[in-house]
Specification:
This protein has a domain of 42 residues. The radius of gyration is 21 Å and the shape is flat. It has two helices and no strands.
Amino acid sequence: MAKKKAKKKATTTKKKSKEMLLVGSKTKDALRSAGCNVAGDALDALNEVVYWYIQQASTRAQANGRKTVRGHDFMA
């Protein structure tokens, strides 16, 4: 009997995540001190929000003719 060829597993293409800008343990501690549990995807989602804020702040600074991002460029 001939051996069957092993089927290759279908590789799922996972979206490459951006570099983590947050300190995971400190972020989790802050959320837990507020009485919340932390899901596995919470830090990734928060990291995306941080990237969005950075992009918005840099756009605002450039629109005002500056290369320096200031605190007021992070509008809440």
